[in-house]
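Predict both folds.
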Amino acid sequence: MHFSPHPKTRFTFSLLLLGVLLCSNVSTQVVKSSQPDIILIVADDLGWGDLGCYGAEDVLTPKLDALAAGGQKWSQFYANCCVCSPTRASILSGCYPDRVGVPGVIRTANTNSWGKLAPVPLLPEHLSRFGYQTACVGKWHLGLYSGDHPMDRGFMRFDGFLGDMMDDYFNHRRHGENYIRHNRTETNPAGHATALFTNWAIRAIQEFAATEQPYFLYLAYNAPHTPIQPPTDALSKVLGRMPKLEPQRANLVALIEDMDWHIGKLLAAVKQYERDTLIVFVSDNGGQSEVGAQNGPLRGGKQSMYEGGLRIPAIVNWPGHVAPGSECHRIGVTMDLLPSICECAGGIAPPEIDGMSLTPWINEPTQVQAEREIYYTRREGGPQYAGLSIEALRQGDWKLVHNFPTQAFELFNLAKDPQEQVDLSNVEPQKLRQLIARLQHHIQRGAQVPWQ
């Protein structure tokens, strides 16, 4: 069965394969009735193998599984980084994170913060120009200071958490400070963070859906990031089903299942309005293996440049436009979300971004994709990193990995070795040198943008 994008959002496929955007004389305004509502859901540290639709055997995620069954699942979708802030910067800017000043994690402590989001246009600003209402709900993690607030970066409203992580899902504090805000006002709500974020998102949908104007909702959950604190009832259900499950894993499974249940609640709220709605679900990086996350057969996890740290679940659901039950094995990256969403909204993204629209493969997942070169970087502090960085570069099936500051480069062929077990750096010295040169090019581009 074949579904095409709406005529207002169809681009020339050959141009897209070259990463070229439509020319500037195409109008960025379309008739509002032709524009879908757009919901982008981002989970935090959800492993590639921790959803039922991605092969998990001990996690029940019926709502996300149904979302995938009714739309399209991507098997080779990647975060732009193996940790939080850089990926979020890529999602909202459409650029490599270091090219917008976020090579590492932005933290509440300045002495260990490794990024400052540059004053570039973000996704909500583009969509506002196309006539959209915009809301950010949940975890921000892109700065705390003047000019960093979501409402300074294009969102019309904000309900969520400004900081880097919560030390407790119930009191929502970080180092004793309260970073929960309703727009710009500090609030102190009671309840588990997943439930609060969901309820705020539903409230935004209800208010937006009362108008004919389309809306964009960016919903960033804290789950299943540490601390692994599921609600008691969610944990009881897991232990009732699997009483012998190792406690660490049981708590993580419960936290994921609780998020899935709340996403179901959100989807039910969306459905009752019967509006044309595009829903995208991704994680911000791989799962944290140390707390029981599973990344399927992939090597490594969160904080690593191996596949388990970078490859993430990705689901696109758009009834009437995306074939239900389809699966795409092409390569997508989180920086591709901005141009893809802009196109689906009937507009165009600026030409200076790094991402490319994925709508050709959403429309026809088996069509040929030109070979891509994708760069990953992470700068970090502490006694192990001391402000240094780690990197990876994928070029077609080849992948160059520098997974630790003091570690040598490794070279893998993902087509032959998807689990990254056979280092070919000594066998393919010419390819190694070529990719190192390309890596250097990307690092030099990123270094043009200040991040402190």
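Second protein follows, with its predicted structure tokens after the sequence.
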Amino acid sequence: MDCKNCGAPLMGEYCHQCGQRNITERFTIRQIIRDLVRMITNVDSGFWYTMRELFVRPATVVESYLSGATRRYYNPFRYYFLIIAVSALIQLSLGIFDLQQAEIRETLNPNMSEEELQMQLTIMEYVKKFLNIIPLFILPFIALAFKWMYPKGKWNYAEFLISTTFIYGQTAIIGLIPLLVFYFIPQYIGWGFPISLLLSTLYSTYTYQKAFQISVGSAFIRSLFATLIGFVFMFLIMGLVGIVGGIIYAVAFR
């Protein structure tokens, strides 16, 4: 058997030439959790190489990583976390997050009372502290939706979670461009979510069309619905948790 990373003949569990561990089992949630623990305490190389390859050959990156050639690429979860941390820093330092929230208030509730406004501002100040973590919560729901929408049998849920993380990490990099544009022309900041949705759908289409060898049209429809379903599913779960939490609070403290 040859090394999946460099092609050298294997003489043990680890490649003597590049150090890649021979991975024969499929990815599982348990393995992802174990890798996340390692990720926090260890720093791998390959960030810039991974970024470049995800721009030009995203399907190859995903398929190579899932086949076991993990050493040449940056860990997808660490990659995503670093990118959204940079994105959050840009949003907060340039005041883009505040502009987005003001646009949402003006659109959804322009006649908000002073008390409601102060309450929302307080909540948003709290949200700012976790702006680099909140995007992580969408990944499991998006991955599940992609698993539903794409041909069954090729990848399991854990493998879709890995591919989704690569995709959304790269989409976050591309999304830095409209963020900077909104800073200079804030009157268009209301287009932030539609643009983000379009970018993630197009990049998912670009990746999965090649990975699954399906038509561009089919990949686009599947990616669009998977993204929308993922967001809806997340909001439903969050709403349900909020309702249950409110009931528990009312019963326990009133």
